[in-house]
UniProtKB/TrEMBL annotation:
UniProt cross-references to Pfam families, sorted A to Z: CTLH_Armc9
Family according to the record: Belongs to the WD repeat WDR91 family.
Chain ranges of the ARMC9 CTLH-like domain: 35-164
Coarse class of the protein's main subcellular location: other
One BP annotation, GO: negative regulation of phosphatidylinositol 3-kinase/protein kinase B signal transduction
Cellular compartment(s): Early endosome; Late endosome
Gene source species: Phytophthora kernoviae
Taxonomic placement: Eukaryota, Sar, Stramenopiles, Oomycota, Peronosporomycetes
GO cellular component, one term: early endosome membrane
Protein name: ARMC9 CTLH-like domain-containing protein
Length: 261
């Protein structure tokens, strides 16, 4: 936008600003989208709710993997049920009845597709005519605050996941790549310096290991020589003289008192 003003494209700037204000995606701001839908529910603007969901489906949800189909169906069903519950709870039962009258065909198709499922609408057509639905064993959970909070949290988390998965426009991706280039170069230099340091450390460690191995070999040689020398001294020592006690014979160098020494 600053570029448009810098170049003097004031009309383009005005058109662009107006388009941004009408942006249903709210600049991919999850909180704004959720808030917009909740306000539409609370003010009984069912067409705004449906149009916003239709836009999100065409712009984002249709590009998701098929594995998300069940989650999307549950979220859409919960959003519409929230509209009906809010209308009944706030005393505008006619809004709930009008919703069922205008969208009966779509809901009947949903009933046929989800028969026996917890997402079925078959019981909901009588909700506007139940005196105290908040006490009904089936509907009471939908009138509680925990259900509302669980839906809002699930919807917010799902939108966040969808927006995080969006591919960046090529121009924006190119600009981000240019901005990240200096950081990547710095990280490369740091990595190269670390690699050089590790190579030097490895060289020094290898040298020390070789010195220790050489010292070990020298010590082993010294010990071997000492052991050999000790054995040679032991076996070359003179044998001591002794006395044959049986015959009482005197042997040179020893005297046991058998004869006079």
């Amino acid at each position: 936008m600053e570029y448009l003003l810098f170049r003097g494209f004031t009309k383009s700037f005005q058109v662009f600003s107006a388009e941004r204000k009408r942006d249903r995606a709210k600049g991919f701001d999850v909180e704004q989208i959720v808030s917009q839908l909740l306000v539409a529910v609370q003010t009984y603007q069912i067409e705004t709710v449906l149009e916003t969901w239709k836009f999100l489906t065409a712009r984002f949800f249709n590009h998701l993997d098929a594995s998300y189909a069940s989650t999307l169906h549950q979220l859409e069903t919960s959003l519409l049920r929230l509209y009906v519950v809010n209308a009944v709870k706030s005393g505008h039962r006619e809004k709930a009845a009008e919703f069922f009258q205008l969208h009966a065909d779509k809901l009947n198709a949903s009933v046929a597709a989800a028969r026996g499922s917890s997402d079925s609408w078959s019981r909901w057509f009588i909700l506007p005519y139940i005196e105290h639905p908040e006490s009904d064993s089936y509907f009471q959970v939908f009138f509680g605050q925990p259900w509302l909070e669980a839906f809002v949290t699930s919807f917010r988390n799902f939108l966040s996941l969808v927006f995080r998965s969006l591919p960046l426009p090529k121009l924006l991706a190119f600009q981000l790549a240019r901005l990240e280039e200096p950081t990547l170069k710095l990280r490369l230099k740091v990595s190269q310096s670390e690699a050089t340091r590790l190579r030097l450390y490895n060289t020094e460690a290898t040298t020390k290991i070789k010195k220790l191995e050489e010292a070990g070999r020298q010590l082993h040689s010294i010990l071997r020589v000492m052991v050999q020398h000790s054995f040679m001294e032991h076996f070359s020592a003179p044998t001591p003289n002794y006395v044959d006690l049986t015959l009482g014979v005197y042997t040179r160098g020893w005297c046991y008192g058998i004869v006079e020494c």
